[in-house]
Write a structure and sequence with these properties.
Shape: elongated
Mean pLDDT: 93
Oligomer: single chain
Number of strands: 0
Distance between the termini: 15 Å
Structural class: mainly alpha
Number of helices: 4
Order of helices and strands: HHHH
Largest sheet: none
Low-confidence stretches: none
Number of domains: 1
Length: about 70
């Protein structure tokens, strides 16, 4: 499982990559590159336009809940 910093960096990179994706093949490339770190649900939420802040907030809430 990635650390909080690794997760945040991957989330920012995936968001930038998805926003610059112009074709379905571009989206597939981004998906393959980031699915191991972020997971398919998080990538799907990014693809559908959920904000980075909201995704990071969800992760923090789940981490606090697990502690």
């Amino acid at each position: 499982m990635p650390t909080e910093d690794e997760y945040e960096a991957a989330l920012i990179a995936a968001s930038k990559d998805l926003s610059s994706a112009a074709t379905a093949d571009d989206v597939r490339r981004v998906w393959r590159a980031h699915t191991g770190t972020l997971g398919h649900r998080t990538l799907g939420r990014l693809l559908l336009g959920q904000s980075l802040d909201r995704l990071l907030e969800r992760r923090q809430l789940r981490a606090e809940k697990d502690d």
